[in-house]
Amino acid sequence: MNRISMLTLVAVLLALPARLDAADARSDTRPNILIMTADNLGYGDLPCYNSRSPIKATNLDRLAAQGARLTSFYTAAPTCTVSRACLLTGRIPQRHGLDDQLPGIEGNYGIGLSHEEILIPQILKTGPTPYATGCFGKWNIGFAKGSRPTERGFDEFIGHASGNMDYYHHTYAGKHDLHQGTEELHADGRYSTDLFADAAIGFIRRKSKARQPWFCYLPFNAPHFPSPKNKRPGQPVRWQATDRAFAAYGISPDETDPNNRYNAVITALDEAIGRVLDALEAAGVADDTFLFFYSDNGAFTLGREDIDIGCNEPLRHGGVTCWEGGLRVAALARWPGRIQAGSVISEPFWSPDLLTACARLAGARLPDDRVYDGKDPLPLLTQGARSPHDSFFFIYRNYAALREGDWKIVREKPNHPWQLFNLAEDPGESQNLAGDQPRRVAKLQAAFANWENSF
To answer: Could you read off the pLDDT of 222-239 as tens digits, one per residue?
Structure first.
């Protein structure tokens, strides 16, 4: 090789992005992966998203300062069950088939997500160095034989089958609903957020000490609203938090204002997340862990004062709708030395992308017998690349939407006309531009039809 060629090669090598090579490095240097989800957290609940929020969330503020705040991250479905299936399969509901919330005991303890679907932990077992895998929290995609986490790629599981159990007594519709592996776990009186965080911390400590790469899925059930059917006779139906969280606001655990109680629920969640962050530091693996936090869907706006407490500002409406408040969610990502600390990333991407990211980080190949809707988000997160997606497609019950670039069409029923919004100028979807731009509506409607024809 002549001197000019050598200089050219050196220049190319120096120009390569620093420290994005962990996914392509030797098998013994694979990063750990931690995905944490909140349950029905509002886009505007956290102070790092909304300076007017009264909620104390210092650890999530810390996470935002140490990583990236994502302002256009979408969950692929605006409800608990479906959004979790999309995350774990990397596929939208029209492909994996679980397109609605699992109802009641029969639904939550039924098959749920098809056994033909392949989940993130199963893919991480196929890489050069198989990952240790743990799930701690809300499952909500089926708990029949063959559907439980330890039968679908997770080595360890502590959590609940249903979508909403009591935080202290762990009951759902009159049934005890806390499990370790496939067996019932009785821990009455332990606050579920702390229970799940502690289980994750134990897993992280053990696997980090053993120097085995690990994947921890930590789907908290907070701050999901309380439900009468999950309470014992005479038990008040109210938001549940720890005494410490109430004390942070100078209020009693007997506080009656549901807004104050809701704030305490999120502070208790924040405290638990802080302990997980501290555990990563103590184990010496914080710099070697890709961490992603987001809400499974937006806060609900169901027309009930005792439930409609979460804040989705400045977005419109909330969970179980395809307005931005249901789909665009608070999300944070941290990977020290790769993701710029204190950055804000506005490029849109969505929850199915996380399966693709996990596969790349582990050096695992995706199965080639199915269509994946996720694309690699790591260049976007680490190099400032543009979104890997041309458009995003959503259907939930009667709702439908499509985003392409800054533009979005949405309708509330199949027989309703499409409405058109410029999200860059109007994230609150307050100005319907369909009448002014029929050609753009037709273009986006054609893109929507292309998605439908791909199933």
So the answer is: 999 999 999 999 999 999
Give the C-alpha separation, 313 to 333, whole Å. Answer: 21
Predicted TM-score (pTM) of this structure: 0.94
- Among residues 339, 354, 389, which one ends one of the domains? 389
Cα gap 374→19, rounded to integer Å: 23
Q: Could you say which of 356, 389, 422 is where a domain stops? A: 389
CA distance 394 to 426: 19
Q: Report the pLDDT value the prediction gives residue 88, as an integer from 0 to 100.
A: 99
Query: Same domain for 52 and 152?
Result: yes
pLDDT of the residue at 28: 54
Residue 353 lies in a domain: yes
Handedness of CA 371, 377, 378, 384 (dihedral sign): positive
| Tokens coding 163 | 């979508």
Tell me: do 310 and 420 sit in the same domain: no
Instruction: Enter the tokens of residue 131.
Output: 């990952």
**Predicted confidence (pLDDT) at residue 383 exceeds the cutoff of 50:** yes
Q: Are residues 190 and 142 in the same domain?
A: yes
Digit-coded pLDDT (tens) for 11-39: 333 333 333 443 443 345 899 999 999 99
CA geometry: angle at 414 spanning 326 and 106, to 5°? Answer: 60
Task: List C-alpha distances in Å: 317 to 42, 86, 428.
Answer: 10, 22, 9
Domain CATH number, residue 221: 3.40.720.10
Angle between helices 258-282 and 58-66 (to 10 degrees): 50
Encode pLDDT of 240-256 as tens digits.
999 999 999 999 999 99
E strand or H helix at 192: helix 192-209
Give which of 58, 198, 48 is closest to 137, Cα–Cα.
198
Tell me what the pLDDT averaged over the chain comes to. Answer: 94
Token reading at 138 = 């809300």
**pLDDT band (50, 70, 90) for residue 153:** very high
Do residues 408 and 385 share a domain? Answer: no
pLDDT tens by residue, 276-316: 999 999 999 999 999 999 999 999 998 888 899 999 999 99
> Which residues lie closer than 8 Å to 356 by C-beta, 6 or more apart?
90, 366, 372, 374, 375, 376, 377
Asked if the bond preceding 130 is cis, omega within 30° of 0, the reply is no
Domain annotation covers residue 351: yes
How many CB atoms lie under 10 A from the CB of residue 452?
11
Looking at the structure, do residues 316 and 430 belong to the same domain, yes or no? no
- Whether residues 336 and 436 share a domain: the answer is no
- Domain hosting residue 416, numbered range: 398-455
Whether 8 is covered by a domain: the verdict is: no
Return the number of other C-beta atoms located less than 10 Å from residue 389's C-beta: 21
Domain count, the chain: 2
One-letter amino acid of 92: I
Residue 329 pLDDT level (bands cut at 50, 70, 90)? very high
